[in-house]
Design a protein that fits this description.
Blueprint (H helix, E strand, L loop, with lengths): L4 H9 L4 H7 L3 E3 L28 H10 L5 E6 L2 H6 L23 E2 L4 H6 L2 H15 L3 E6 L1 H6 L3 H12 L2 E5 L10 H14 L13 E7 L5 H12 L2 E7 L4 H5 L6 E4 L2 H15 L3 E3 L5 H15 L2 H29 L3 E5 L4 H11 L3 E6 L5 H5 L11 H4 L19 H9 L19 E3 L4 H11 L3 E4 L1 H9 L4 E3 L11 H17 L9 H14 L1
Parallel strand pairs: 2-3, 2-4, 4-5, 6-7, 6-8, 8-9, 10-11, 10-13, 11-12, 13-14
Antiparallel strand pairs: 1-12
Bound molecules: FE-MO-S cluster.
């Protein structure tokens, strides 16, 4: 039976008080083009209704956990009560690979100032200084990052002043982040804050020239479950030099030298578009949107990079790598399609994967019936063309917007505007992202910052074959008899990027949607009711 998405939407809204329902109606959208062909508008990046169970995280999580955390040789210190540090300790499965035994790797450590009542009352700067000195004495890192948690902002500790003093005293780079958890409506604010400070304090601080011909940075790839390793291998085989990844499997030195690249390839637009824009303005490095999730996306992204450099030999090598990989991909696709064709998926996750992973499902012949981001902005749904129409509210104004101008000596446009237009015409997303909606079927449901109540109703109404979300949702979904794939941490699996990752994903999802195990799930009270009924009947 075909479900009417408008009826489903009404069903979800019916549970809310009038005012909440009215606002929520703008965040629950049926993906239908309007008469003039334009996409529907969605409300996003706004506060969660108090009392609703959201999937979102905090600003500190977006800054420390997401953007800076994966860099192995920046020593991260959480200034705050112990829980913030502890619960952001390696839970994201971002991997890293040192180059030798001398190469520093601090991401297995969890450093915190462990704030107590005394600091809340009398201030925590003294304890922070002591913590930085102690950490320096133990590790001798080349850089230390200090992350503010909620109480830091409330009591007014100046982490930036402490960072300046310590930088001078220790002679290494020390910088702080005003990423208090409450700073924004979600972790998205933390991404922006992290981008700003990385740009101010690290990017462009190492002028060593790079002799290679095809130099890029990968932006917004965090090496969850080893994804970046797969992409690094592909680029290397193609003869493309990866100067830096922001920030999967990354190092401080690579960031410092990243302005030597001639192209920024942006994978997760939501978390890192700020760095891409700032590097373009200051250094003249263009950026294109890529996507290494899904075999088709991977092939297209590699081709676009080759097209950008416009070199026959590079193009040939890229084509060779693609064809080497595609045989196995197509073989596996054919195999899984026999069992997965027509099955349905829902994806409610983050700020980019809810889009990218739909493409993998499509390659398996599966249909996405509903999807949404936790914390993305309208441009991630509707495309960057809506940017000028996005209202800047008080919550967004709260976050510093750096004024970037062209560097007097180092600004060097890699392509002239005419060439960029040509690349755009040839189908490349130059400084552009078209968003998730155009890739979704007509009549699918799109929900921003889905509330848990809505998740449960959708499961009952649609009974999808698989639901993709995170650890907070996982067990509730499985108790409803539906398999749940974590798209944040990949459960214990991965990598899912590139061709090899796509094959892993096809096989994993095939196994999950074709096992009967979840349909046998029965809640204890249901079992009791059955037993009682049996007893009465006998
Ligand atoms: Fe970008 Fe990410 Fe995501 Fe993200 Fe994240 Fe993540 Fe994510 Mo979890 S940076 S927006 S803040 S792709 S941690 S690696 S999986 S919510 S969809």
């Amino acid at each position: 039976m075909e479900l009417n998405p408008h009826t489903v939407k009404d069903e979800l809204l019916k549970a809310y008080p009038k005012k909440t329902a009215r606002k929520r109606a703008e965040q629950i959208v049926v993906n239908e083009r309007r008469e003039d062909g334009s996409l529907p508008e969605i409300r996003a990046n706004v506060r969660t209704t108090p009392g609703a169970i959201t999937q979102r995280g905090c600003t500190y999580a977006g800054c420390k956990g997401v953007v800076i955390g994966p860099t192995r040789d920046i020593l991260s210190i959480t200034h705050g009560p112990i829980g913030c540090g502890f619960y952001s300790w390696l839970t994201r499965r971002n991997q890293t690979r040192t180059e030798g035994p001398e190469d520093a790797n601090y991401i297995t450590y969890c450093l915190s100032t462990d704030m107590q009542d005394e600091q809340i009352v009398f201030g925590g700067e003294k304890k922070l200084r002591a913590a930085i000195e102690e950490a320096y004495a133990v590790f001798h890192p080349k850089a230390i990052a200090i992350f503010s948690t909620c109480p830091v902002g409330l009591i007014g500790d100046d982490v930036h002043a402490v960072a300046r003093d310590m930088k001078e005293k220790l002679g290494i780079n020390v910088f702080g982040f005003s990423c208090e958890g409450y700073k924004g409506v979600s972790q998205s604010a933390g991404h922006h804050i992290a981008n700003n400070q990385l740009f101010k304090h690290v990017v462009g601080t190492d002028e060593t020239p790079r002799p290679e011909r095809f130099k890029i940075n990968m932006l917004g790839e965090y090496n969850i479950g080893g994804d970046a390793f797969v992409i690094e291998d592909l680029l290397e085989r193609c003869g493309i030099t990866l100067i830096s990844t922001f920030s999967g499997n990354s190092t401080y030195d690579a960031f410092a030298n990243s302005h030597m690249a001639d192209l920024n390839a942006v994978m997760c637009h939501r978390s890192i578009n700020y760095v891409a824009e700032m590097m373009e303005k200051k250094f003249g490095i263009p950026w294109i949107k890529v996507n290494f999730v899904g075999a088709e996306g991977t092939a297209k992204s590699l081709r676009h990079i080759a097209q950008y450099f416009n070199d026959a030999e590079l193009t040939e090598r890229v084509e060779k790598v693609i064809s080497e990989e595609m045989t196995e991909v197509l073989k596996t696709q054919f195999e899984v399609r026999k069992r997965c064709e027509g099955k349905t998926a829902m994806l409610f996750v983050g700020g980019s994967r809810a889009h990218h992973y739909q493409l993998l499902f499509k390659e398996m012949g599966m249909k996405t019936v509903a999807a949404g981001y936790e914390f993305a902005h309208r441009d991630d749904y509707e495309g960057r063309s809506v940017l000028p129409t996005i209202k800047v509210d008080a919550d967004s104004r709260n976050i510093e917007q750096l004024e970037i101008v062209a560097d007097e000596t180092r600004y060097q446009p890699r392509k002239d505007p005419g060439e960029l237009v040509q690349l755009q015409t040839a189908g490349m997303d130059v400084a552009d992202y078209a968003g998730m909606l155009p890739d979704m079927d007509e009549g699918t449901l799109v929900i921003d910052d889905i509330y848990h109540f809505e998740t449960e109703r959708l499961l009952e109404i649609y009974k999808p074959d698989i639901f993709c979300a995170g650890i907070k949702e996982k067990y509730a979904v499985q108790k409803a008899g539906i398999p749940c794939k974590q798209l944040h941490s990949y459960d214990y699996g991965g990598p899912y990027a590139g061709f090899r990752g796509a094959i892993n994903f096809y096989k994993e999802i095939d196994r999950m949607v074709n096992t009967k195990i979840w349909s046998y799930v029965q809640a204890p009270w249901e079992a009791e009711e059955e037993m009682e009924a049996d007893a009465i009947a006998s």
